[in-house]
Amino acid sequence: MPQELSHVSEAFRSEKLELNLGPHHPSTHGVFRAVVELDGEIVVDVIPHLGYLHRGYEKTCENKHYHQIIPLTERCDYMAASANSLLYCLTVEKLLDVEVPERAQVIRVMMAELSRIFSHLFWLGTHGHDVGAMTPIFYMLREREEIMNLFELTAGGRLMPNYLRIGGVIQDLENGFVERLRAFTDHFDERVDEYEELLTKNPIYVDRTRGIGILPLKDAIALGASGPVIRASGMAWDIRKREPYSGYENYSFDIPVETGCDAYSRYLVRVA
To answer: Which of 171, 179, 132, 137 is nearest to 154 (CA)?
Structure first.
């Protein structure tokens, strides 16, 4: 700061403010309370309070049959429901030494990847909305609706398909599913380009995300971060590559990595 302005800074020095963000009503999704200490617009400290949505799933599962637990797993993260049920099914199959048919493995991968896209779309839309970009979420809900239509076609459920079963899936794909999936994937790259036009070089969005929420790699590792979070901190970590399951070793795909360690890098990893 220039010498001649130092007295101005002293005269207008702000007091630190403690602000409670949340908790919100427990019927809403992903709620928590954050006690935030602010110095102007600078976040000095945050103390998170979690557990507002604790439902005791583990205890509930103790009194359920193996197949009855599958719908409960999907409710742990309804934005990526099939990813949760796949993890549970893989665990039980390993425990019981169950071999899953190859066709069922391919179907599982398709459902898991659609869930992954579904989750990323909603993250991108709501994240942009939270920092003031109102338009992108309407674009992303468009593709999210197409994925829900695919879930509904083959499983009946739009948000939580409840399609996977221990040993495979509940039934084969419905007629027309593959054709509609191909139609979706054929134009999806163009839709991602639209998202990037709205956000990636948007100066307001960049200013509000670049250099914000810095998470160095060593801290990300210490905190047990994974997925896009740790990849945005510079580590090419993807469990589908490191410890392949459900036939992922048969697929070729890149692992997007960024080194900015900030909110903008976490966005870039997800949209890559």
So the answer is: 171
- The full set of domain ranges for the chain reads 3-49, 57-209
Identify the helix (H) or strand (E) that includes residue 42: strand 42-49
Nearest to 263 by CA among 215, 226, 221: 215
Look at phi and psi of residue 36 and say left if phi exceeds 0, alpha if psi is from -120 to 50, else beta: beta
**In what side-by-side order are the strands of the sheet with 33-39?**
17-21, 33-39, 42-49
User: What is the C-alpha to C-alpha distance for residues 234 and 237, in angstroms, rounded to an integer?
Assistant: 9
pTM of this structure: 0.87
Which superfamily is assigned to 57-209 in CATH?
Cytochrome-c3 Hydrogenase, chain B (1.10.645.10)
Return averaged pLDDT per consecutive 10 residues of the chain, 272 residues in all. 53 79 68 87 88 85 94 91 96 96 97 95 90 91 95 92 96 95 95 94 94 95 96 96 95 95 96 90
